[in-house]
Amino acid sequence: EVATGSLPGWDRVEELARAAHARYRDLDDGAVADYIPALADADPALFAVCVAETDGSVHAVGDAGVEFSVQSISKAFVYALVCEQLGHEAVRERVGVNNTGLPFNSVVAVELQQGHPMNPMVNAGALATTALVPGATPQERWEHVREGLSRFAGRELVLDEEVHRSESATNARNQAIARLLQSYGRIDHEPAGVVDVYTRQCALRVDARDIAVMGATLADGGVNPVTRERVVSEDVCRDTLAVLASTGMYERSGDWLFEIGLPAKSGVAGGIVAVAPGKGAIGTFSPRLDAAGNSVRGQRATAYLSRTLGLNLFASA
Ligand code: GLN
Fold first, then answer.
1. pLDDT for 5
2. Assembly ipTM
3. Can you tell me which atom of ligand 1 is nearest the CA of 71?
4. Which parts pass through the membrane (predicted)?
5. pTM score, two decimals?
6. Which residue of 91, 188, 235, 266 could cross-link 294, Cys pair, CB 3.0 to 4.6 Å?
7. Residue 206's beta-bridge partner residues?
8. Which of 123, 130, 204 has most ligand 1 atoms within 8 Å of CB, for mutation?
9. Ligand 1 touching residue 104 (CB < 6 A)
C-alpha cells in the first residue's frame, strides 16, 4: 500500500524511526573525535534518530533535542548557498565535484591536483567554497552563512563559542590548507579570515531534528517543509545532492552509496544527514565515529531506515 514516490503513512514512519533507534542504541563501536579538544567531552551514549518528511511532519526519537556542532554537515548547505548566489558552473570550475579518495583533511590531495580542491565536501574544497560566500568582510560572510543555514533549519542557529575557540586554537592543518590554496590562486581572500568563517560555520549548534529539516529542505526542492520558506532553487538542490552522493561520506562515499543508496553528509561531532529526494531526510546523531570520521550508530540506523522505508535510489522496487 506504499504509494510510489512517497513515504509510508505517519504511523509506519514513526514506528520504524523508533525501531532504528532501539536496534542500534547498544552498539558501542567507534570512538569520539578528539582532534578538536572540545569534541572529546561529548557523551558517547547520546543517540538520536529523526525523520523529516517533505509534508512537514517530523519524527524525533532519543536525544533529538541535544545540540552538537554541525561540523562538516555545514559544507553541504554552504555549498548550496554559494551555488544559489554564483551559479553552479562557476563553483564547479573553482572547487570541482569529484571524490579525492583521501581523508577529508588531506593536504596531499591538494598537491596531487596542483591546487585544485576536487570537491566542496573535503576541507580544502569547503574552504574554497566558503571563500566564495558574498560579503566584503569575514564578518559579513559569516553572517551570510549563519543566516542561510538558519533558513535551512527553520530556526535561528547560534555559534558554539567553546567549539569555535577550541578548534581555532588547534586547526593548524586547516590554516595550512588555506595557505596552500592561496598559493595556487584558489582563494581570493586573506586565508586566516576564510579559515575563521569556516571554523565558525562548523561550530554552529544544531540538533538531530535541525539536520533532518535541513536535509528535507534539499529533498523538497529548496523549500523548507516546516516554515514553507524557499531557501535555494530546485536546480541547486539537485546539484548539491549529486555532489553529496559522490563525496559526502569522504573516501567511504562509494561504500555508503552501495549500502544505503542515498546522498548524505556526515560531521565529526557525530551528525549524519541522508536525503531522499522528494520524500524527506533522516538526521541522526551519535558521537562515536569510524576511521573515516562517520558516526557508527548513525550509519547503521540510516541503513536500516533506507531499507525499511524503501529509500534506496537505485532500487527499482
Ligand atoms: N571542523 C572540522 C575540521 O575542519 C570538520 C571536519 C568534519 O566534520 N569532518 O576538521
1. 56
2. 0.96
3. 8
4. none
5. 0.97
6. 266
7. 68
8. 123
9. yes
Superfamily name and number for 73-202: DD-peptidase/beta-lactamase superfamily (3.40.710.10)
Q: Is the pLDDT of residue 263 over 60?
A: yes
The answer on whether 98 is annotated among ligand-binding residues is: no
Q: Are strands 48-53 and 280-285 parallel, antiparallel or unpaired?
A: antiparallel
CA of 291 to the centre of ligand 1 (A): 14
Q: Which three cell numbers stand for residue 180?
A: 596552500
Residues of the chain with CATH 3.40.710.10: 10-69+206-308, 73-202
DSSP character string of the chain: -PPTTSPPPHHHHHHHHHHHHHHHTT---SEE--SSGGGTTS-TT--EEEEEETTS-EEEEESTT--EE-TTHHHHHHHHHHHHHH-HHHHHHHH-----SS-TT-SHHHHHTTT----TTSHHHHHHHHTTSS-SSHHHHHHHHHHHHHHHHTS---B-HHHHHHHHHH-HHHHHHHHHHHHTT---S-HHHHHHHHHHHHTBEE-HHHHHHHHHHHHTTTB-TTT--B-S-HHHHHHHHHHHHHHTTGGGHHHHHHHT-S-EEE-TTSEEEEEETTTEEEEEE--EE-TTS-BHHHHHHHHHHHHHTT--TT---
- Work out the percent of the chain whose per-residue pLDDT is above 70: 98
Q: What distances in angstroms separate CA 218 from CA 52, 65, 197, 232, 315, one per listed residue? A: 11, 21, 23, 8, 21
Radius of gyration of the chain (CA): 18
Residues 55-58: contacts with CB within 8 Å, 24+ apart? 55/225, 56/225, 56/226, 56/228, 57/10, 57/13, 58/209, 58/212, 58/213, 58/226
